[in-house]
Amino acid sequence: MATTATKPAAEKENRVFINDKGQGTFICPACEKGVIRDLSQFSDVETAVRLKCKCSCGNVYRVLVERRRHFRKPVNLVGMFLYRSAQKGLTKGLIKVQDISQSGLRFSVNAAPEFEVGSKLTLEFTLDDEDRSQVQEDCIVRRIRSNLIGVEFDNLDHYGKLGRYLFR
Predict the structure, then answer these.
(1) How many angstroms separate the CA atoms of 149 and 166, rounded?
(2) Over 113-155, what HEC string results?
(3) Global pTM?
(4) Contact call for residues 78 and 85 (beta carbons, < 8 A)
C-alpha cells in the first residue's frame, strides 16, 4: 500500500494520525475509500514520515504520518515564562508562542534558557482572539532544541478561553 517518499511542491498532502494501537486510517482523496494499516514502525521515528499510497481505485496520493495526539495550531503570540529555581529564585523571560495544541505548545526564547527538560514553568500569553484573552498555564518542559522549547500542560482540560480558541 505505501512506500516512503518526498513531497512534490504542487501536490496536496493529506495527514494520517497514528492511534493508540499504532494504526492509521488512510482515506483516498479520489474515491474516499478508507483502509486501516499498521504504522507502529513509524511511532518512534523523530523525522517527518511521508508515504506514497495507491488505492484499489488506482489513485496514487501522498500522506504525512502524524505521531501527535492532538492537532497543532500555528500561532504568533507574545508572552512570558516564569521559572523558579533554588539558586536564582524567580526568573522571567519573554517568549514567542509558535504553535499550540490541547496538550502543550512550542515557544522560542531570545537566549539559551536556564531551565532544563523536566522543569516546571508558568506561561502567560495573550491570544489573538476578539477579546485578546489572557492565558496562564502551568507546564513541564519536554524538549529543548537551541532556543525552541516544547512544553506539556499540567492540565489537559481546557474549558475556558484556551479551549474555545483551540476548537474554533
Answers:
(1) 20
(2) CCCCCCCEEEEEEECCCCCCCEEEEEEEEEEEECCEEEEEECC
(3) 0.62
(4) no
10 Å CB burial of residue 152 (0-12, 13-18, 19+) is: middle
pLDDT-based confidence at residue 17 (cuts at 50, 70, 90): confident
Count CA within 13 A, CB hemisphere, residue 75. Answer: 25
Q: How does pLDDT run across 151-163, given as a tens digit for each residue?
A: 999 887 766 788 7
Answer yes or no: are the C-beta atoms of 108 and 96 closer than 8 Å: yes
Phi, psi of 162 (to 5 degrees): -65, -40
The terminus-to-terminus CA distance of the chain in angstroms comes to 35
